[in-house]
Design a protein that fits this description.
- This protein is of the alpha+beta class.
- The protein has a domain of about 90 residues: Multidrug-efflux Transporter 1 Regulator Bmrr, Chain A (Alpha-Beta Barrel).
- About 20% of the residues lie in helices and about 40% in strands.
- The strands form 3 sheets. The chain has a 4-stranded antiparallel sheet, with helices on one face. A 3-stranded antiparallel sheet has the order 2-3-9, with no helix packed on it.
- Strand 2 and strand 3 form a beta hairpin.
- The protein is globular, with a radius of gyration of 16 Å.
- This is HEBP1 protein.
């Protein structure tokens, strides 16, 4: 099922073609010279998002990512490969008391700069285009 998107990604996406999302570095945490994480602020932008709720957290992330890859690799109203932006963001959801994680996660893809004004519509109705306000993200 993912053979075509993976082939498309391999054909069309060399490392120099990956667009890094513009951000402001707020904090960088290292231990013994190894990067543990960065705290980044991303500006207001449009993202393609999918919320998944599988039995296992890892399944939710994998299935959400696969669906986004289909959108990126031509299953969109433009019929074109959209290009990769990095990182792909995973949002972990908590219960109302914010005391524990739920099984639900949101996997999100930053739409490349050239698509921000008019993003292609996804064929998959589970994927929605959202405009996020300026956002803080922890990256590993």
């Amino acid at each position: 099922d993912m053979a075509e998107p993976i082939q498309q990604l391999t054909r069309n996406n060399s490392p120099q073609e990956r667009q890094t999302i513009p951000f402001t570095l707020i904090q960088r945490k290292e231990k013994l010279g190894d990067l543990l994480y960065e705290k980044r602020q991303y500006g207001k932008a449009k993202w393609a998002c999918i919320k998944m709720k599988e039995k296992q957290y890892e399944q939710s992330i994998c299935l959400g990512f696969m669906k986004l890859m289909r959108y990126i690799c031509e299953q969109n109203s433009s019929g074109l490969y959209l290009g990769i932006t990095i990182p792909i963001v995973t949002i972990v959801h908590t219960n109302e008391a914010q005391s524990e994680m739920t099984q639900a996660v949101t996997v999100a893809y930053y739409l490349p700069e050239v698509l921000q004004d008019e993003p292609p519509h996804p064929f998959d109705s589970d994927i929605i285009i959202e405009e996020w306000p300026s956002t803080i993200v922890y990256s590993r």
